[in-house]
Design brief:
This protein is mainly alpha-helical. The chain has one domain (7-251). It contains eight helices and two strands, in the order H-H-E-E-H-H-H-H-H-H. A two-stranded antiparallel ribbon has the order 1-2.
């Protein structure tokens, strides 16, 4: 009788798939016409809504159920704090805000890749932790959520690269590569929790706190700087609602 796949392998495969959806989302950039800033902000708002719902229903609620609100609160604060520190010490570049972190001689493209890596790491971590802890329903729901939010993010990355002068194929290729931080984080999270099951609730909450920081500190401000706040908010509500419904259906 064949042995079931290990949680670490499942975490790797799932996060590799979610990471590659960044490239899938970037494919429309191969077309001659680029999406408008209004549409991009609405799509990124949708991604923010999906991430907020995934954080609440797929990470924090299970963490509270496993170990109570105290452990969940501690993990959430730790995750947000770690991302806040990384945001300060890692030089990176955002599409609208511009450069953040210490000064650096790195080219703009690598600063932008670092910014997307900071976004993607907690997403992969959450999926990996859920698989590592045997929370397969939660892990699948999270993987669906991350895949959904990676689609508009991949398009936004490719559009920025086109504006920086990169060719259409190269922009799509680099956008795809930015999603590869997720399988790295996924393997790390799955392996850590597989070795120490008591870390599961803390790991879920940690990933939730990190994702919450990314949404509030990065994605929402980016969608509110070009005058399309209403469109971004409508996208956020749509993304949150869709993920809430999917979480209920897939989790039942």
């Amino acid at each position: 009788m064949p042995l079931p796949p290990s949680p670490v392998l499942l975490g790797l495969l799932a996060t590799l798939a979610t990471g590659l959806t960044t490239g899938l989302g970037a494919l429309p950039a191969l077309l001659a016409r680029q999406p408008s800033p209004r549409l991009l902000d609405a799509l990124l708002g949708f991604a923010a809504g999906v991430m907020l719902a995934a954080t609440a229903f797929s990470l924090l609620v299970p963490a509270i159920a496993l170990a109570g609100p105290g452990v969940a609160a501690g993990g959430l604060v730790m995750g947000a704090a770690v991302l806040a520190v990384l945001d300060r010490i890692v030089p990176h570049l955002h599409t609208v805000v511009g450069r953040e972190g210490p000064s650096s001689t790195l080219r703009r493209i690598w600063l932008f890749v670092l910014a997307i890596t900071l976004h993607n790491f907690p997403e992969g971590l959450g999926v990996g932790v859920a698989f590592g802890g045997g929370e397969f329903n939660t892990a699948i729901i999270l993987a669906v959520a991350i895949a959904l939010q990676n689609l508009p993010e991949g398009l936004a990355v490719a559009v920025l690269l086109l504006r920086e002068g990169y060719s259409h194929p190269r922009a799509v290729l680099i956008a795809t590569a930015t999603g590869l931080a997720e399988p790295v984080a996924g393997v790390f999270g799955a392996a850590a929790v597989s070795l120490a099951q008591p870390l599961l609730s803390l790991g879920l909450a940690f990933a939730g706190g990190a994702m919450l920081f990314v949404v509030s500190d990065e994605i929402i401000p980016e969608t509110h700087r070009r005058g399309f706040e209403r469109e971004a908010t409508a996208g956020l509500i749509a993304g949150f609602t869709l993920m809430m419904v999917l979480d209920t259906l897939l989790g039942s």
